[in-house]
Every structure is written in structure tokens, then in C-alpha cells.
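Case study.
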Amino acid sequence: SQQGEEDPQALSIQEGENATMNCSYKTSINNLQWYRQNSGRGLVHLILIRSNEREKHSGRLRVTLDTSKKSSSLLITASRAADTASYFCATDAWNNDMRFGAGTRLTVKP
Amino acid sequence: EPEVTQTPSHQVTQMGQEVILRCVPISNHLYFYWYRQILGQKVEFLVSFYNNEISEKSEIFDDQFSVERPDGSNFTLKIRSTKLEDSAMYFCASTIENYNTEAFFGQGTRLTVV
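After joint prediction, the assembly is written out as follows.
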């Protein structure tokens, strides 16, 4: 299927540490996006990386994309308690609208 | 900052009743979506809508579901005869284009079918 699958399912770290979440998918994609969700609320867009890009940065976020391995990673550096949320990858293919993975639940302990 | 708004925030309905979930997408956006999320599970695609037509729908979006853009601003999801398993958060989203663009999501409607 197109949709991404994140791992780990849950991640717990201390404030100040880095958090790395991974996403794998199965079909060719147009782009891959990462979203954040606080406690069942709406999804907030974090970053979009196109299929011809390999790395992208936004503030403390770094996203990589490896289309040969059909995988992406999201790195949050110097994490804060406020980063506690669920993080989802979403893949956008030419013939399908955006599909989400199951998400990684990140807990950052103060 | 422009935002997608959804109403109501929480709806409780009896099994078998019809519900209409409402969304106001961002005004200059042209593509509209509904997703749902059963508690603690993944966000599932339901349907996309463009130019007053369904562009794509998932296997979840069966004959019990319909979408409509009744005027220039609202985008609605109707469930004709609700089932217990329809209980979920329903999210509306909109985009300005249909690819390589971020989606803006509403805060969701929590539907509880009893």
C-alpha cells in the first residue's frame, strides 16, 4: 500500500535529547510529509520533502528521504517537553491522495 | 493565519441516525478532504473533492457516506445511518493545489455513536 508506516510506535526521551522517527512506505511517491498531532487534536503540517530531495531542515527539524529504500526519517534536535505529541508521516502519490501511517507517539520528559 | 474550521467539535448520536459534519475550508483552497481517526489509531483517508466532484474515495467511504459543497464556503460529510464503528474523530482538510503542497487540517469533530 502507499501509506507510510512509522517506527518506533512509541518513543520516550529526556528533554534535550534528540528524537528520531522513521517512516517506510511501499509505492512510488510524489512527496512525503510529516505532521504533528497533540492529544487527538488536528494535524499540523511540519515539513514536506519532494521525491527528488534528499534532506530538508526547518528549525530543529531535519527530514531525510531515501527513495531507493522507500524510507524517511524525522529528527527533532534538542527536544523540549512541548514536543510531546504524535508524529505522522504521510505519502502523496501521483494517483492517490495523501495517506498516513500509524504514527509515533513521542514523550519528552522534563 | 487562515484556518480550517469544523463544527460541531463533538457530536453524540443514536445508532441508525443521520449526521452531518461541517467544515469551512480555507477560502482560496480548491481541494478538500475528509479523514477519520478511530481513537488511538491511524488517520484514515475517506474522500477527496475538487470542482464539485469526488476525486478519490477509499473503501471506507461506502454508500452510507456522502459529501457536498452546498455553497461557496461549507464542505460537509454526511453519514446516513450511523453504526457504532463510525465512532471516531473526523478531520477535514484543504489544500490550494492537489500535489506538493501542505494540507491544512481542522481541529476535528469527535463523533460518538451510542
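Observations recorded in class. The mean pLDDT of chain A is 92. Chain A touches chain B through 26 residues (CB under 8 Å). We will return to this complex in the next lecture.
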